What we know:
Blueprint: H1 13-40, H2 47-67, H3 78-95, E1 97-99, E2 102-108, E3 111-113, H4 115-132, H5 140-158, H6 163-179, H7 184-207, H8 215-223, H9 236-247, H10 259-262, H11 274-307, H12 311-336, H13 353-371
Helix pairs in contact: 1-2, 1-11, 2-13, 3-4, 3-5, 4-5, 4-6, 4-12, 4-13, 5-6, 6-12, 9-11, 11-12, 11-13, 12-13
Amino acid sequence: MRIPRRYWRNLDWPLILAVLALVGIGLVVIYSASHSQLEALGASPFYYVKRQLLAFGLGSVLAVIILSMDYRAWLPWTRLIYFGNAALLMVVLVLGTTVFGSQRWVRIGPLTIQPSELAKLALVLALAKLFSEHENARDLRQVARAFLMTFILAGLILRQPDLGTAAIFICLLFTLWFVSDAKPKHILVAGSSLVFLAVVAIVVSFMGWVNIIKPYQLKRLLVFLDPYADPTGAGWNIIQSMIAIGSGGFLGKGLLNGTQSSLRFLPANHTDFVFSVVAEELGFVGAMVVLSLYVFLIWRGLRIAAKAKDTYGTLLATGATSIFFFHLVINVGMTLGIMPVTGLPLPFITAGGSTMLTSLLAIGIILNVGLRRIKIMF
């Protein structure tokens, strides 16, 4: 559907500029973090940068396509999108590619995608549709249905295993449930019950009675309390990350001059711990610029959600924006040693095609809702 020229004034250009700034910073930091290692392997120092640009190009095209469609036209397709993603997650468990002990990726032709990233958007679409219907957020039968939809996807992701992404799904469920006018006591009871079950799962796994949580995941959950209890093992990543961030000082060591990164003390420096590279090379100032851009992005997303013309649009924009919020809090908290190491990426900056693609699709959803915030438009 072609968007009439007079409607472009409703497009949130400040949000787009913030995204472009984050992508630009990400490309520079990815090159700085990975070039020495790639050169040592005899590969092009721009290998990850080129892949990131390719993902950005593809994601931008898909975001424009999403933007050209009225978001209400997605309603009849929500069930197909949800079950299609669930099926893709099942395919991953059977035919997926295993990397570092996790089976999260599936190859489709020349592309390798991570379906758990796309499943976040599928869940947002499904929950937005469910909770946008009158009184569903207060109807316990419908709430139970929402929990079931969430747990199906989260359970499949836990099997990969990917505890961090599964936790994001639970956070999205509670966020959309809360925004859709749920009863506070229902949220409190459900939240308390989940916390209790999580504690029980950790205890029984720690005691060795039932292996609910994988041993390495349990170690990650516990070691962040005291990384120096295992400084050369499970605590290594956190310790090196904190050293990198602290050594950056106020203005940083400068691009390409990060010692923790270039000397390979900091693992996964272009993926999970990319924020540590930002802080080491660009310092406190650079880190605050990056964080400010994320805060601005989240604020613009919530602003669009608040101005949406219907409940469905509000829930869509809120859910898409929440993805950025939870990833930001968990990823940055992980690099600072105040959150367990979960492997969650930092949107637009972490190297990864699936992450970039999902992030741009989420931005497309937010912009779509904002573009059609006026009642009689299409």
